[in-house]
Amino acid sequence: VRREGLDEVERPSPERARVLDDLVTAARDLEVGWLVVAPGSAVAGRALADTLIRATTGVNVVAIGRHQELIKNPGAQEVLQPGDRVAVIGTPAQVADAEHYFSKFD
Question: Is this structure's pTM higher than 0.85?
């Protein structure tokens, strides 16, 4: 609890503390990466569902930075545009696979 920056007054219930501990434990094996959609990239101009990024690399897309906007938890029909910064989460190997996937060009 202290490690997470909570003081004694904000101490979670035992059940919530267990859930938080499980989340911290699970997150140890995860990495967040930011990938840029390059012009001409195989993913540019395609909906997330059509990129097959989850099926191909195992990562989940959790956000897209576009211009001054942050699209949180984008839907499957969100179209990736050149210049988008795409936040992905997965194991280090999955994030590396996604980086390679994003670097492919049509």
Answer: no
Residue 55 CA to residue 49 CA, distance in Å, equals: 10
Q: Residue 82 and residue 60: Cα distance in Å, rounded? A: 19
**What single-letter amino acid sits at 27?**
A
Read off the DSSP letter of residue 11.
Answer: P
Kindly report the backbone phi and psi dihedral angles of residue 46, in degrees, each rounded to the nearest multiple of 5, phi listed first. Answer: -115, 145
The secondary structure of residue 10, as a DSSP letter, is G
Residue-wise DSSP of 14-79 = HHHHHHHHHHHHHHTT-EEEEEE--TTBTTTTSBHHHHTHHHHH--EEEEEEETTEEEES--TTPB
pLDDT-derived band at 6 (thresholds 50, 70, 90) equals low
The residue type found at 96 is A
